[in-house]
Amino acid sequence: MKIARGRGLLTLEQRQDFMQIPEDEWILGTYFTFSKRDLEIVNKRRREENRLGFAVQLAVLRYPGWPYTHIKSIPESVIHYISKQIGATPSSISLYPQRENTLWDHLKELRSEYDFVTFTLREYRIAFKHLHQLAFENGDAIHLLHECIDFLRKNKIILLAITTLERMVWEARAMTEKKLFNTVSQSLTNEQKGKLEEIITSQHPSESNKTILGWLKEPPGHSSPETFLKVIERLEYIRGMELETVQISHLHRNRLFQLSRLGSRYEPYAFRDFQENKRYSILTVYLLHLLGFKFAPRIRDLSDSKLFTIDKASEYPKLEAILRGQINTKVIKENYEDVLRLAHSIREGTVSASLIMGKLGSYSRQNSLATALREMGRIEKTILILNYISDESLRRKIQRGLNKGEAMNGLARAIFFGKQGELRERTIQHQLQRAGALNIIINAISIWNTLHLTKAVEYQKRSGRFNEELLHHMSPLGWEHINLLGEYHFNLEKVVSLDSLRPLKLS
């Protein structure tokens, strides 16, 4: 089989992480627990080491999916788990690889008995086609490699060397990106392409040491009326490029977001080194992303809120003090089909909710669609208030949601004690960097707590003294057991698997 050479994606440590067998009870139970038929096939071998070796070969083909000869290390706990099922001595595994022919004979028998498939050019093409489609949604190489391995494993295709899988992912991603770049570039007019070239080559009139793109990407700085006017100036410049006509609505939102992030990272000189299609595509998606607005409204001062009625307010004399007015049902009926089309577009991802909110917010109050949505919003708000007043379980549910938010805020305050918990950076970029670092630590604590809580719950369930109702009152945001003082180090070269946790402290 001849497969085109490509590029590696992983470091040596990452490759080892992909191929290691985690000492996890779920993995053991799912992949390494043998059925009656499995045991019958395993026990056809006379020698103890051959029975254990054959069983281990079967286990590693199921997970992680590579042949036994590719796996450098198998945890002792896994060997013990398998040997206990077949009645073998764990140490006999050391005698198994003495005859290479035995290894290959067993692998051949496993392919025959369990329909495992050898990775040939045909399987390569099938997996490549699958990856090619996935890459239109997500171009992250690690994600695609995980998806590739899962796909092959589910289809019982024996994995080749991980470097071969890396090359396949790289080629599938490169082909997808080429199609994406061509799609965006072909929808640009020559005039639009000229404007894109201008922003990476021409200097800004008032910023002689910066290109126009550098000016557009410059952080706005501290909040002030002057800063606000500068932001408006940049938005108006981007709008003047008339990029809204570019046909990208059919592309997946995740992919567009990834392209926009690339655009935010590259400097103007880097764009000049790209091929035209790639340069125009990333610039276009990035600039369109800059035009987006996000709104996060919430109901405040619920006790002061007023209710709306379908009928005349005068028909509810006892509630007149808390009634605000009557719903305009006529405008809802007249625009209902447009409202449904709008809801469908948002649900299908054709248009983002934030973009619609921005558009509607710019319309005059006389716009019929905006009026209809406002009237429907009043109905929903009235129903929510009435349900909240009459439904105790709903109030508890909302309170639990608030408690979760407060728990996260409490954890954030506990971590962010430096400089008295204040953001003292003047620029928005530096403030965002500090806030981002805080979120990383919060997420790390949440993941760590979740994993250990899961192990603790599993242990309690096995012991038979766990109350399921307690799950509703558990949270991964506690920090009393964590020493928050000291320095935080993030070594990306030594990424530890989430499966390699310390044992629970049961005393």
Model description:
GO terms for molecular function: transposase activity. This protein is an all-alpha fold and 507 residues long. Among the domains are: 104 residues, no CATH class; 89 residues, no CATH class. It is built from 20 helices and four strands. It has a two-stranded antiparallel ribbon with strand order 1-2. The protein has a two-stranded parallel sheet with strand order 3-4. A hairpin with a 2-residue loop joins strand 1 and strand 2. The longest helix is centred in the last third of the chain and has 36 residues. It is globular.
Kindly list the characteristics that best describe this protein.
two-stranded antiparallel ribbon; Transposase; DUF4158; mainly alpha
